[in-house]
Queue: 4 jobs
Job 1
Amino acid sequence: MSKPDIRPETEFEAAAFRRLVAHLRERNDVQNIDLMNLAGFCRNCLSNWYREAANAAGVEMDKEQSREIVYGMPYEEWRSQNQMEASAAQQATFEKNRPKE
């Protein structure tokens, strides 16, 4: 049995990524701290992974550029329009489950 072509798999992964990003853009009511507390990653993590992949492929990209790809707008603009103050309970959960670096 021959090994399947990697291209279709990459296309499926890219389509899933685009759908995830579109979903997160639509659900700006879901705060990053909620995502971190429930799933262990947030929009910023996703943008960091994107930037790391781009840089590893030799494509220069900074944090603001990768965040704009994920947020669909400059990060500070998204924050001013959508980010709410985290509650004490949200902050406590985050501190308890904070990723170890």
Job 2
Amino acid sequence: MTKQKYFTLILILGALTALGPFSIDMYLPGFPAIAHNLHTTVARVGLSLSSFFVGISAGQLLYGPLLDRYGRKPPLYLGLGLYVAASVGCLAVHRIEALIVLRFVQAIGSCAAAVASMTMVRDLFPVKDSAKVFALLMLVVGVSPMVAPTVGGYITTAYGWQAVFVALGGLGSLLLLATFLWLPSSYAPDTTLSLKPRPILANFWAVLREPQFTTYALTGAVSFSGLFAYVSGSPLVFMDLFKVDAKVYGWIFAFLSIGLIGASQVNSQLLRRYESAQIVPVALVCQVLTTLALLLLTLAGVIGLIGTVALLFVFLCCLGFTNPNTSALSLAPFTRNAGSASALMGAIQMGMGALASVGVSLFNAHSALPMAGIMAATSLLALGLLLLGRQRVGQLVTGDAVGGLH
């Protein structure tokens, strides 16, 4: 594979992976404007974010079997088309309920991009390179929380929140074109796979029976759900509690994202000396200590804007180490049913994220406590799941050791 082709693949796969996060981050600065325009509250607008997470979680279970049955690109065309249509629909809403529903539909479309890109990593690159490729994808994905809320803040201020969905629809259209022109067909359709419910469920069950998958998929999903708590709670924490405006909020969000990006790239270098299964527990312990500090300082009422930003930065650094490695370790045992495994991993991750997001919205106490509490709880739970799961796996494993299991 030439360097140019490698770069093109990483860029397109990264952009596809980033479509969902970009759709989440870009409209966050518009929460107060949406609430005012639709005559509702910021917390209720947050439910449109939760519905997006639910849509991604449910949709990934749909696209996994489709990607294995029909190949990677046809389901991707379907999903991106649905995403563009829903983005256009968001322009015309007059009630928050309509926005919540359309965001769910938009998520169903965007998750085709997420599942396809994760699966194609397994198709196009050797197992031993998976963690490095995932880290590179996170570099592209990391541009989203740096750019999206900042751009979203300026667009909302200049043109109104509806213009954000014009931009998202345009992005979806560009990705549809790039997929058609430059993304290779990486997998021959498997016509032996049935799309009837029973065989699909049996296939998912076969994936769940793999101890390495359940250990690292659950650990990664629960750990990563703290990010969704942060994303859902940050508009209230920064714009309502600390009284920053939409533009400043966008810049804070962008700065914090540097932690996620930087750590994921440091992780790529660490993989030259350490195995993925060695990095994950160290990062999780750091994540637990950081989120507990945020919770305790918030409870004591002694943490301000700078302290909150600093601890959130460290938290995102921890995720930059855990997420690429848990993703690679989860998918390493699979070849034939990699699409279903990727979909199931994504569904678990987004399902956990949806619960965390709903928790922040429902237990909104006009303080940072719901966000900090859920971040601490999920970090502790993830560490516990890792310790219990590694006993089932029986040993530290790497992609080289397990690449041929299935």
Job 3
Amino acid sequence: MKAITYAQYGSPDVLELTEQPMPKVGPGMVLVRVKAAAVNPVDWKVMAGYLDPMMDIQFPAIPGWDVAGVVESVGLDSPEFTVGEEVLAYGRKDFVQGGTFAEFVALPERVLARKPTSLGWEQAAGLPLAGLTAYQVLTRLGVGAADTVLIHGGAGGVGLLAIQIAVARGARVIATASETNHAFLRSVGAEPVSYGAGLTGRVLAAAPGGVDVVADFVGGVLETTLAVLAPGGRHASIADGTVEQNGGTWMWVSPVAADLRALADLVDAGTLTVEVARSFPLEEAADAFRLSMEGHTRGKIVVRVS
């Protein structure tokens, strides 16, 4: 099968389109014919070696954890899915090697969910990791209808989904973004504020009593978070471990299929959609990584496989 691989840590220049063996499909596993895979910042951080202290890797490695595709075959004792079903997954494994930037990927049945019928392949590929991150952070923080929520990084792939999930729960949402994205954020139910110098004042002008919840999806904003948090407020970050020393929660997304099914239900109910910033063919995956590394796209970056 064709796959994007890298044989050593490095920049996107180490990525190559190569021929790789078909994945083996063991008990409890499902072989997925990949239609699309999404790029996430963690993909190029792993490729650069930043996560080497905490994750094992086997070279040549196929990057990618997000996938949308069709069930090609199922392993022994894998009763949940049948050949031909359309599925999606956050396919993180115990070590980095057989990822989703390939024509086929074998995944544990327990991480898969059925694709929302209302999403195309590219949108579906952009949902799992970002959607699960947003959903699990907001769930851990107990976001509900009585809350005013500040989302740092509202125009990013995770932030946009978090806005919609929080709004669906009845919360008031304030979200940071550049001014070019303010109109779009309003269209998904947020009150936008510009990030950068003076952010604390702008948030407190919008919420004079402070906010109940802060969800940080960008990092480097702890000072503002603590300054705008109302007494008894809750906060979490996916990008800044120091929140733990300041009463917050540092989170890492988990591949929970039940949460993915809940996201799919929100999509098919019309309350959640996935914004795709740009898509690339598989052979141009390096360019997709480079765009992700720039950090200025609105929504998800996707690679088309088949």
Job 4
Amino acid sequence: MIWYKDSSGTGRDRYHHGNLREALIAAALDLIAERGPAGFTFAEVARLVGVSPAAPYRHFRDRNALLVEMATRGFQQFEAELVRAWDDGRPEPLRALVNCGRAYLVFARQQPAYYSAMFAACPQPETESELARTSEGALALLRLAAEALCANQAKNQRPPSRMVALHIWSLCHGVASLFLNSGEGLPQPLSMTPEDLLEAGILLYTRGLGFGGGEPIPPKL
């Protein structure tokens, strides 16, 4: 993608669209990062790219279609990061699961526009759509982790792996939403980082299920 300086005096760079589709996605990500998940219109994306308001419709049906594409790409990157953190369950499943949680927070912090498109701005995916498949892929990785954690338990004592995966996802998403994306902080500072807080939550949860293991939980807040 080639960039050139906006001559309008706004100080904003504009896109020279050798690839209009990619330019539209990049512009929408910029606007979401700047203004939040509801922070752009289709017309604003076109204006930022430097094309007519009708031009984006050659690539996307509407604003929602653009959001779906952004969310799909975000989930693809997100799943790749979780797979890398899981590392086939090494050095052992519980530690690998904690690493996945930390990777979740890293992604939310480093890719806030994609994260917003995935979880805050995108419409509910249609069944069997590419977005539905890619979002399910990330959950499937957490379900694999849950199955590895449960492997040594008696079958009649194993909790449903999908339930465990959803609980872990909820912990990760809650910490990310509260401490990484709000921008407001808490009424009083914490004595723990978001990563340590999440790790403590995962260890408490898994110990409650009887999995055991893991390092000592950090000191209380």
